[in-house]
Write a structure and sequence with these properties.
It is a single chain. The chain is mainly alpha-helical. The strands form 4 sheets. Strands 5-6-9 form a 3-stranded antiparallel β-sheet, with no helix packed on it. Strands 1-2 form a two-stranded antiparallel ribbon. It has a two-stranded antiparallel sheet with strand order 3-4. Helix 13 runs antiparallel to helix 14. The longest helix is centred in the N-terminal third of the chain and has 22 residues. The chain binds zinc ion.
């Protein structure tokens, strides 16, 4: 069957590779790859950010063509005008309407993504091509840390300046997300918990993005806490979160990537890096309460009281423990496991600059899907990811 393809505009091209993975670039009506977009997007190969940036960029490039602008000549005020044209409130006329129906103006999250991708794109191209120093300087600004930044003392590091983006529309700070832990919660909770197990739970939730189901579903064999574990999937200490339907405490990982045991070694699942503080809290628990009470089921977290002492501990019981510790500590609201996840993510965003930020926004904070693609991915060895994690853990070199 013959099909006629009408191409009248720059567009995003999806490329499906042999292994099923996808990558994204921008092509012109004659199918020529847009070199600027392509070289920029290639930095995000294999991450969800690449697709998000491609779609954001293609809209901007179409606008740029209409306005007769190129990288060498475009100014910060042109970019602000574009942001106005796609929906941001800007203190200037932004010319002809751009996103006309059925296209809708961008919402708050999409505007932030657009701001981050444009900043990234122009900084990258100005440096690469050695052009437009005025724009480069205008975009490459940093701001002093705000009080909320400083309050993130639980991250254990001193923030001296934060990357800023003059294209980001003013609005509610992401760092004030209501689902985050109250400031200073980690040390307060650690003061209030009564067992090594509970201290371990607080530490493990604080230093990772583990869900409570994943944490209470862990078996000892899932923990690879020595360097160069036999699984060969991660050189530094980590845990494999494996979905098991038959756990006696009914705890189950939410995600179900494939996993298996090969020659007694767990391989696959969702891999989470383990911090030095997590390892200390693990040993404190294993050498005391676990040794004393565990009943041979092989699960990590056990009940420490009552008729079923030594049996696996449930996610509900863990939730109750956190809620009560939070109440004793006088922390506002109810402490919920998910808040740790949001707070860790917030710390990673702070520490890593725009990539994860964009991933989070693009994935919609509520769904977290895009974020998982970036930080829940088994390959957690990019220098940027490692640096961000070390900062969050207070392990900065
Ligand atoms: Zn492993």
């Amino acid at each position: 069957m013959r099909s006629v393809i009408v191409l009248d505009d720059i567009r995003v091209q999806e490329i499906v590779r042999g292994d099923g993975s996808r990558s994204y670039t921008v092509v012109w009506p004659d199918l020529a790859v847009d070199q600027e977009a392509d070289s920029f997007l290639r930095q995000y190969e294999g991450s969800g950010t690449q697709r998000t940036y491609a779609y954001t960029l293609v809209d901007h490039l179409r606008w740029r063509v209409r306005e007769g602008l190129v990288t060498a000549t475009i100014s910060l005020s042109d970019l602000q005008r574009y942001m106005g044209a796609v929906g941001a409130r800007v203190p200037m006329p932004f010319g002809e309407p751009w996103r006309v129906p059925p296209k809708r103006p961008y919402g708050a999250d999409a505007l932030k993504v657009a701001a981050a991708s444009l900043k990234g794109f122009y900084l990258y191209q100005c440096v690469r091509q050695g052009v437009n120093p005025a724009l480069r300087e205008a975009l490459d600004v940093r701001r002093l840390p705000t009080q909320p930044d400083r309050d993130r003392a639980l991250l254990g590091h001193v923030v001296t300046s934060m990357p800023a983006n003059p294209l980001t529309p003013a609005g509610r700070s992401l760092r004030r997300h209501p689902k985050m832990l109250p400031d200073g919660a980690r040390p307060e909770l650690l003061n209030e918990v009564n067992t090594a197990r509970d201290a371990m739970v607080v530490t493990w939730l604080s230093d990772t993005t583990l869900r409570i189901g994943g944490l209470t579903g862990l078996h000892l064999v899932d923990l690879h806490l020595r360097d160069n574990a036999a699984c060969g999937e991660c050189r530094s200490p980590h845990a494999h979160v494996c979905h098991r339907g038959g756990n006696p405490n009914r705890a189950a990982a939410k995600k179900k990537p494939e996993w298996q045991v090969q020659d007694g070694v767990v391989i696959g699942g969702e891999i989470y890096r383990v911090s030095p503080a997590m390892i200390s809290s693990y040993f404190a628990y294993m050498t005391t309460e676990y040794t004393r009470y565990a009943t041979g089921h092989g699960m990590l977290l056990i009940q420490l009281h009552g008729p079923r002492i030594g049996e696996p501990w449930t996610a509900d019981a863990a939730r109750g423990m956190l809620r009560r510790a939070g109440r004793r500590a006088g922390l506002p609201g109810r402490i919920k496991p998910h808040q740790f996840r949001h707070s860790t993510m917030g710390g990673l965003l702070d520490a890593s600059g725009n990539d994860l930020l964009v991933a989070k926004e693009a994935g919609n904070w509520a769904s977290m899907q895009m974020v998982d693609e970036v930080y829940g991915h088994p390959d957690q060895h990019s220098p940027q990811f490692v640096a961000a994690l070390n900062t969050v853990w207070g392990e900065e070199e």
